[in-house]
Each structure stands twice: as structure tokens, then as C-alpha cells.
């Protein structure tokens, strides 16, 4: 990129010097006017051909950028034509010398080619920024079924999160300190990504040995059962057997799913 910039700069400087030489030569002979005008037109066309950023600039500034780029070539051609028809007098020659010097100085210092490219680049950057803003505004809004699902999606299943690529399908408060979660893959037809128990433990502030992640009986790898807490005793569960309790949990958390394990621990309030 740096080499190309230097080549363009060198070409622009060389063209300016050449144009000044042609204008000086035209002061002595009218024969330089015709070839000089043709050379100016050819140089402008060649320069545009090798500057697609100007040719394909955003429509709003394309004409302006092309006009700025070709301004030195147009000016040189007009000066040559004017000199051809100018009267042959000392005053006329002095005026032509002054105008040629002004053209050379303006072209050398203002660098119209660089200005035209900068104009095109700035307009393109603005268009891209506007397009990016419109895309951001049109981004779909995620709607969660429950507050718990929203918390899971915004804290656990975020990109590069502990359980990225998952969604909380349902949950069941087994007891005061026991929670069962049924999670699924965010993309249909994909398996639930592997979740590091250590990372989930750190996020929820629950000991690792009180977190169980396993398959959901009777279901595929697209869903997983996450049980948090210590396994409750079968006794003291309102007279029901342990199997009956977990059958009821299964019916509530996910119809048709038989939960087979659970633990007990203080849960984060966001998941309860």
C-alpha cells in the first residue's frame, strides 16, 4: 500500500513537471499546443483508469471527485489553447508566463489527485457507517419466554460465555434449595455444546460437586438436564416416593422427560 502511494505521488509530480515544461515550450512555438492538449487528455484518462476509487466513488461525490482529479489536466489544456490564440505581444507573453507559473504552483501544492481520492474515501466511509447503523437498527430483538430464560441468555449463554449456544427451555424448583433446569441447543438440529462444570460453578458460585449435567432420558443430544444442589432424601417429601417426586418434576420441567438425579443448594435468585 505504501509503495502504491509513493508511485502515485511520483507520477503526479512527474505529470506536473511535464505540464509546466509543455506550457513553457508553448510560449516559443504554437506547435506544442495541439500535442500538449492531447497529452493532457490522455494523462487524465489514464489516471482515472488506474484510480477505481475515484471512478467508482459514491454517487454523491463521484462527479466532484472526477472534476477535482481532472482539474489540472483541463487547466493545462485551456492554457495551451489560450496561448495558441493569444496575440503575439510582450504583455501577452508575460500574462501566459504568470498563469503557467500559477498553474504549476497550485498543482504542485494542492495535489488534486490526492484530494480527489480523499474525498471519495471519506464519502465511502460515511456510506459504510450509515449502512452499519441501519443494520444494527434492524437487528432482531430477542424475546424470552420467562425472566429466568432471559437471565440465562444474557449471562450464561452469551457469546464466549459458559454455555454459549444454549437456551433455557424450562426449570423446576424441586425444593427450597434444589433446582432442575432443562437446556437445549440454540440451533435446531445441533447437540448442546459441552459445558465446563468448573466454569458454571464459578459463575453460579456453587461447588462443582453440587452440579450435575447429563442427558435427558428419552431425548436426543439437543437437550440436557442440569441439576443444581444436593440430592434430597426420599423421606419427608409429603409422603411421596422419590420416583414419584421426580416423575412430577419431569412433568413440570419438560413433559415426557424423566429426571433421574438432583442435588440441593442455595440457588441464585435470578434462576428461581
How are the SSEs ordered, and which strands pair?
Elements: H1 2-28, H2 33-49, H3 52-55, H4 59-85, H5 90-110, H6 112-137, H7 147-156, E1 166-175, E2 178-185, H8 197-204, E3 211-215, E4 223-228, H9 242-253
Antiparallel strand pairs: 1-2, 2-4, 3-4
Describe the fold and architecture.
The protein is α+β, with helices and mostly antiparallel strands and 272 residues long. The chain folds into two domains: 2-137; 147-271, no CATH class. 56% of the residues lie in helices and 11% in strands. It has nine helices and four strands. The protein has helices at 2-28, 33-49, 52-55, 59-85, 90-110, 112-137, 147-156, 197-204, 242-253, and strands at residues 166-175, 178-185, 211-215, 223-228. Strands 1-2-4-3 form a four-stranded antiparallel sheet, sandwiched between helices. Helix 4 (59-85) packs antiparallel against helix 6. The protein is rod-shaped, with a radius of gyration of 38 Å. The two termini are 57 Å apart. The model is unreliable at 254-267 (pLDDT under 50).
Amino acid at each position: 500500500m505504501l509503495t502504491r502511494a509513493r508511485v502515485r505521488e511520483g507520477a503526479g509530480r512527474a505529470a506536473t513537471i511535464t505540464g509546466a515544461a509543455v506550457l513553457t515550450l508553448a510560449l516559443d512555438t504554437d506547435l506544442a499546443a495541439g500535442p500538449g492538449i492531447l497529452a493532457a487528455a490522455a494523462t487524465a484518462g489514464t489516471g482515472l483508469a488506474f484510480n477505481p476509487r475515484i471512478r467508482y466513488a459514491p454517487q454523491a461525490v463521484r462527479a466532484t471527485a472526477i472534476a477535482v482529479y481532472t482539474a489540472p489536466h483541463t487547466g493545462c489544456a485551456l492554457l495551451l489553447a489560450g496561448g495558441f490564440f493569444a496575440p503575439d505581444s510582450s504583455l501577452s507573453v508575460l500574462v501566459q508566463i504568470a498563469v503557467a507559473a500559477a498553474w504549476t504552483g497550485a498543482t504542485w501544492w494542492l495535489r488534486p489527485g490526492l484530494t480527489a481520492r480523499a474525498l471519495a474515501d471519506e464519502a465511502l466511509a460515511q456510506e459504510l457507517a450509515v449502512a452499519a447503523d441501519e443494520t444494527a437498527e434492524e437487528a432482531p430483538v430477542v424475546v424470552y419466554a420467562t425472566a429466568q430464560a432471559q437471565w440465562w441468555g444474557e449471562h450464561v449463554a452469551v457469546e464466549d460465555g459458559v454455555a454459549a449456544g444454549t437456551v433455557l427451555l424450562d426449570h423446576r424448583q424441586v425444593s427450597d434449595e434444589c433446582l432442575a433446569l432443562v437446556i437445549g441447543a440454540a440451533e435446531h438440529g445441533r447437540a448442546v455444546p459441552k459445558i465446563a462444570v468448573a466454569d458454571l460453578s464459578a459463575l453460579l458460585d456453587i461447588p462443582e460437586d453440587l452440579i450435575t449435567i447429563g442427558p435427558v432420558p428419552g431425548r436426543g443430544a439437543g437437550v440436557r438436564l442440569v441439576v443444581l444442589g444436593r440430592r434430597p432424601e426420599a423421606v419427608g417429601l409429603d409422603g411421596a416416593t422419590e420416583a414419584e417426586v421426580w416423575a412430577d418434576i419431569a412433568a413440570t420441567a419438560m413433559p415426557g422427560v424423566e429426571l433421574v438425579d438432583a442435588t440441593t443448594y442455595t440457588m441464585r435468585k435470578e434462576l428461581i
